[in-house]
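hey can u check if this looks right to u? its 127 residues, i copy pasted from the old doc so theres a chance i mangled smth
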Amino acid sequence: MEEQGKETIISDEKDEEVVEEEEVVESNVDSSNDEADDKVDEALQEEIATLTEEFDQLKDRYLRAQAEFENFKRRTRKERVAERKYKSQDLVNELLPALDNFERALEVSVTEETKGIIDGITMDYNQ
């Protein structure tokens, strides 16, 4: 007698027992394969979760580094502008005492003896 779903030809009762035992062994193999597949799936899911977490951390670090660099550029730009502004202020602070001295020298009364000196100081002051 031949069954279409099975490749084994069943001829008597002993063969039927062998076929039934083979089916039991195959079902055990299938269940162990399912368990192995489940373990592999779990391992893959864990690896995916780990890689996703690592990706998120790296992305966060990248975004923070990019923001920090933008802040650095903005800060250095402000520092350069402030440096130029206060550099000229320092120059003015150094020149003010000399200008004050010129003004005091011009306030001196002009006489024949000091006329040449006063004229020279006036020219320097105007310049």
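The two ends are 127 Å apart (CA to CA).
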